[in-house]
Write a structure and sequence with these properties.
Three copies of one chain form a homotrimer.
Chain A (H helix, E strand, L loop, with lengths): L8 E11 L5 E12 L6 E8 L10 H18 L3 E4 L6 E2 L5 H6 L4 H25 L3 E3 L5 H25 L1 E5 L4 E5 L3 E6 L8 E5 L7 E7 L7 E7 L2
Parallel strand pairs in A: 1-4, 4-6
Antiparallel strand pairs in A: 1-2, 1-7, 2-3, 5-6, 7-12, 8-9, 9-10, 11-12
Amino acid sequence: MKGFRSPRIVAADTGGALLDEDYQPLGLIATAAVLVERPYLTATACEVRYQKPEGYDMSGRKAIVEEIKLAAELARKFRPDAVHIDSTIGGIEIRKLDEPTIDALRISDRGKEVLKDVSDEVRRVALRLWEDTGIDMIATGKPSVPVRIAEICSGVYTVIWALREASSRGYVRVGLPKFMKVEIGENSIVGRSIDTREGGLYGEIGFEGVPENVRWELYPNPTLKGFMVFEAWTGE
Amino acid sequence: MKGFRSPRIVAADTGGALLDEDYQPLGLIATAAVLVERPYLTATACEVRYQKPEGYDMSGRKAIVEEIKLAAELARKFRPDAVHIDSTIGGIEIRKLDEPTIDALRISDRGKEVLKDVSDEVRRVALRLWEDTGIDMIATGKPSVPVRIAEICSGVYTVIWALREASSRGYVRVGLPKFMKVEIGENSIVGRSIDTREGGLYGEIGFEGVPENVRWELYPNPTLKGFMVFEAWTGE
Amino acid sequence: MKGFRSPRIVAADTGGALLDEDYQPLGLIATAAVLVERPYLTATACEVRYQKPEGYDMSGRKAIVEEIKLAAELARKFRPDAVHIDSTIGGIEIRKLDEPTIDALRISDRGKEVLKDVSDEVRRVALRLWEDTGIDMIATGKPSVPVRIAEICSGVYTVIWALREASSRGYVRVGLPKFMKVEIGENSIVGRSIDTREGGLYGEIGFEGVPENVRWELYPNPTLKGFMVFEAWTGE
């Protein structure tokens, strides 16, 4: 085929939350990194790092560090054209994220504080990736389709986590990332965007099947429109 | 089933507007209160108070008072875990809505004025409900799924109202709440969210059927994208 | 049928962009004007003025002038009740768009500068239309359904342009307006809103068919969620 190249992109995002009985998040569950290639509808490859939701640092410090580390790992393996990180700081190369750059961002003071606390660590990871491979990590945020696919995959991993936890805990309630549902098959779980404006983005992750004694239900979070709740439990 | 309880929630909202020939709203038509239970997709029970759209107070004063009264009625009947009221004031218990609390809200001065005018009345209703039953009324606003289901039901009641009014007036044009359509069956009308991101919310209300000589049409409001117009008339 | 009249509306919008290899817009492609009548789902008539995307003035100056001229042409032909122009200046009659009015608008200083540069020309076109026909041009912007249908049609014309250009250039990549897809038939191309909240808006334009040696693909813009990319090329 003639024409421009279509970039291969690695992206990462953290999503899925353990919920309490009032549907409030206790902590995040899954950091997912994905390789996304044209036609940019789903992931060609995925990796997950499960988090410990109890006692999870909800400030965002932990999430961004985990995302950048996992994305760098996947980038070394698949050598994409770019790496997209979910962040609201808008199009900046992570390897350039020093204090003056952070101060100049149009984000909240609290956001700047969080970034400064992690900037040494994330800058080092991004710089090393760039020096070794020439691949840049960019803080693209919401407009990035690969970041959204990573978010959807983090939701699928969250459901896999919940189905397993149900066996040991007896019961678990988790919240999925916004505007997505899951379809549980025999050998895989598909997460699908329910925001039609995104043009059909999805993620599919293989898994071992629902344990025989586990039941589950998917339904809208009554306190947070646009977000689905997934519950799994053993027995009836 | 093991696990957390899933709250039963009563919610209320006012919607549907009588429109003039320029598609401008003349007044609101239906206050709906609903009982919503897991899986939070539709209402288990509904009540309506029809408003007189001609000369309707569009400031919001009348709507919030009617919503709180009707929701309190339904709450006394069904004893839910909480009552959600559509309001942008964000998560506050209505029984605590006094002047200092209103002054501290981050809303417009005009909004504060409206709230102060009605605060005595709505606080009294909420306080009495709380003292009698222990049930709290919370101003949750847009994130509440039950409030959205109440909004959809107010749209269905608006269509029922329009079909009846068409018989007496000969012609009527109304506007539905945002992002919803209606399907008119033999014995009921179903209102469905057309915002797929909401995960399939709907409301169904029984009714006596379309009068034999009444015709109707549903189409997008050309001046307000996302809102549907319903027209009904007698004859051809 | 009894009841209010339903206005016939002419609207215009410019959309579709030639993209570079980084999916960045080089210039706009198609100004479309449409006649929209009840039930306001599609266009009854369409016209296009193709732009030269290379070296295109991306400030918005050229787009608004072209839209107003083409809309005025269509309005003289079809005598609608009103003309809607896509602009964020909100409900103002174009024929009244003088400097004091522009200064009073709540838009950016850069936006005011752009408007002042073109105000003489667009005011003259709108005033002449109004004097000759009594039809007003209104800057309605996003809430207008006819403007959205014009935007969708500009996307369809962009695809027709791309299929032709592919034959001469060998390869072309364009970006469609937000939240729409295209379905390419034998004798026409249909553009459909993929934002379900809009209630099913679409536009259909006749065309001569895909040239025999041209291939094409439609896929999400990886760098701009909600926007689709259309590529066409000759050969395999």
